[in-house]
Structure formats: C-alpha cells, structure tokens
Amino acid sequence: MLKSIDLSQVMVIDIETVPQYPSYHDVPANLQDLWEQKTHYQRSADQSAEEFYEKAGIMAEFGKIICISMGIFSYQNKKYSLRLKSISGDDEKDLLQKFYKLLDKQAPSLVFCAHNGKEFDYPYLCRRFLVNGISIPTQLEISGKKPWEVRHLDTMELWKFGDYKHYTSLNLLATILNIPTPKDDIDGSQVRQVYYEEQNLERIITYCQKDVITTAQVLLKFKGLEIIPTENITIVA
Length: 237
Prior knowledge:
Elements: E1 10-19, H1 29-38, H2 49-52, E2 63-76, E3 79-88, H3 92-104, E4 111-114, H4 121-131, E5 152-154, H5 155-160, H6 170-176, H7 191-196, H8 201-222, E6 233-235
Parallel strand pairs: 1-4, 3-6, 4-5
Antiparallel strand pairs: 1-2, 2-3
Helix pairs in contact: 6-8
GO molecular function, one term: exonuclease activity
InterPro entries: 3'-5'_exonuclease_PolB-like, RNaseH-like_sf, RNaseH_sf
Organism: Pedobacter changchengzhani
C-alpha cells in the first residue's frame, strides 16, 4: 500500500489531549468512581486514583481534545513541501465541528497518517466525535470496511514490520533515521500542566505541529524520499 500512496492525498495528523477537568477534585463523584474502576489494574499498589488522574487525558472517556494539527504535502519543481494547519481551543465540540467541516471538503479517499495513530489518534477522535454528538467523518469510519479499504497509515506500525510487541517513540524513530528535530521545550507528559496551570495553548499547538512535521519526514523516509527542508514548511491560519 505504501509504495502506491500518492502523498498529495495524505493528511498527516496529530492530536493533543488533556483531562476533562483541571484536577481530580473537580471530577463529579460518579465519574470519580468510574475512574477508580477503569484504572484499578493500571495503577501501582501504592498509587491512588487521584494521583493517577494526571493521565486521564490519554483515555477518551475522561479526556478531551484541545488541538488537532494537520500537514498536507504538495509537489512542485521536483520538490516536496508541507503545509501545516491547526485547529485548537477549549471548546472540544466546536473544534471537532471545524475538523469535520474541513474533512467534508476532502475526498473520501484521503489517507491519514499518524504515529501510533491506529492505537491512539484515530480511535480517540472517533470516540470524541461520538461523545459530542457529531457524525464520524467518512475518512475515519472503519465499520464494515475490509482491512485493505481502511486508508490509515501509522508510522509506528510501519516500523514494527509485523512485530506486535514493539513500541518505538516518534522521537527515537526520527533520531535513528537521521531526521533533524527541533528541541522541544515540552513533551506529552507536560501538556496537562501547560494547558491548565500555565494556560498556554499556543505552546501546545507548536508542540503538536512539530510532531506532524516529524511524522511527515518519517513517512518520506519510509518511501525512500528526501526529507523536506525547513524553508519548504509553512504554517497557515
């Protein structure tokens, strides 16, 4: 599938998520009980549900999306370029409606690409669309489709080469493939703090966009192509 993929039909995406509530004490009592049940086997013996709540953002039942960044390839003068756009905000439903409208203008055959997308980004988006009462976009819908009809690429899956137990972070994969990456001032574990305590959404958007750029460069490497120079990467409003 990869060799036949036209990069002009690919949208590289990354999402950033946070817990739905700033702290465990803000969570309604019924959801606190459900959180304790959900995380019972994931917490260490001496770790309380409250202490574990900082990880709530990675679970679609207890988290929300605050940023979706997208990258689109174009090819001119025998060179690839990448155009980035982000949709972000505190109102998740509004954010998802904007993303839906954007995808509605794209071809149903659009190919998504994300790092660990099949385990995280794609199902998380579908679940949050459903929670917010919004139809799942055609490009994300997999129900009733045969495996080869699902046009979802995952750079981590590509690197596994069939090894289902193998996990490799985007940063490690970029490093071993000699892809230069800008030094991040935050990582995924700090997004909750930056959002709720620093209230610095712009910093999170920048972090999200960097992951899109890196994922796009990794995909190019998998296709045996040169990576895109910085001057050929643009961010649009």
